[in-house]
Give the backbone structure.
Amino acid sequence: MSFFINRSDRYLSNLLILIVVALSVFSCKKSNSPVTIPPPNTDTIVKVVAGAKPVVKTNSQKVFVHYMPWFETPATSGTGKWGLHWTMANESPDIILSDGRRQIASWFYPMIGPYDSDDRDVIDYHLLLMKYSGIDGVIVDWYGVHNVGDYPLNKRNTDSLFKRIPYAGLQFGICYEDATLAQDKVVAGIDSVTAAQQDFAYLQSAYFTSSSYIRIDDQPLLLDFGPQGLKTTADWQQAFSGLSVKPRFLSLEYAGGVTGSSGSGEFAWVDATDQANLQGFYQNRAPSLATYFAAAYPGFKDFYQQGGWGNTLFLLDYNNAGTLQNCLNLAKTSGTSYLQLITWNDYGEGTMIEPTLDFNFTFLQTIQRYTGVSYTVTELQLIYKWYTLRKKYAGNAAVELKLTQAYNDLTALDVAGAATIIFGIN
């Protein structure tokens, strides 16, 4: 796409192709309203939750993590099948491999196995791990509100996540995928600007007013993975015209020129040139931006070719946690107060930092040292054990009550209290 500058174009062009391929597997009806699906399985969102305490960090930099809400199991997909982000075009998690793992569309395997993004236990497990790693909040990859492909499921799962955020005492924000606007037009018959206006109206009413939403200088933060769908300054101005408070709007690195006066800056992202890209962005691009986010990632190894979703993009070796540590070292001297970790759980591209059978807790331990929390792998293992007990004793009211108290203790930073309950159950 010629309107992108520097290194972002190759990644974005390939990503747009992958989005189109992914959407092609769905049978979508034409509609201007979200599809009817089961509501989120969580409680009503609250602005303040008593008991949740912030962790103490020696590093003052705000650390957020990019989060994918798109994973489905047969119980939640609405089709009785595994979601496409576990299967891509040719994998089947129903197949158990010789090592005991399910066959998923990734080189790597979550420690808790393939999961449903709407599962409250999974959400609480993720958020507790973030909290004890010194991560301040999540930035969710968001496709909008329209009835196209799996957008309604992603929206439901995002709503479920955001409704649990205050209980953990974290923050949340949105990264808008405006490349999906093309499919809104093709499938739902909505022009791109109107579709974006409807998406932003929902963000304003549902998220922006929450006290847990990420704000910079009293503006709600909004990232955009592009621009790819809205390609002119006039389009963006019109898309934001119905908002009472304009967001602090950041585009992908080197793409801010498209957004004009609507934009407030850019965020760095993983690239085939690795550290050279980050250094170039911090040194040459960032000084001209009002706001910018640094980036840190563990590596990159996508499954696209093997999964039947096109060609391999590129490969960045993990070097255990060496690549992540190098990124963090650059972020520390990048001159910004904001860092985005890439990503919590993009298994298709292999950028996940959540615990896996392949890397265990290594990436989160590295982040703990960077953020300067007093916690170690011991607390992360305790949270994992809490999750496994949640699943083991599902339906046992007496044990579930104890585990709920253990969760409350963990959000209040009472690790000793939580450990007493958790280890007492077995």
The chain has 13 helices and eleven strands. Residues 1-10, 23-48 have pLDDT under 50 and may be disordered. The CA atoms of residues 40 and 160 lie 5 Å apart.
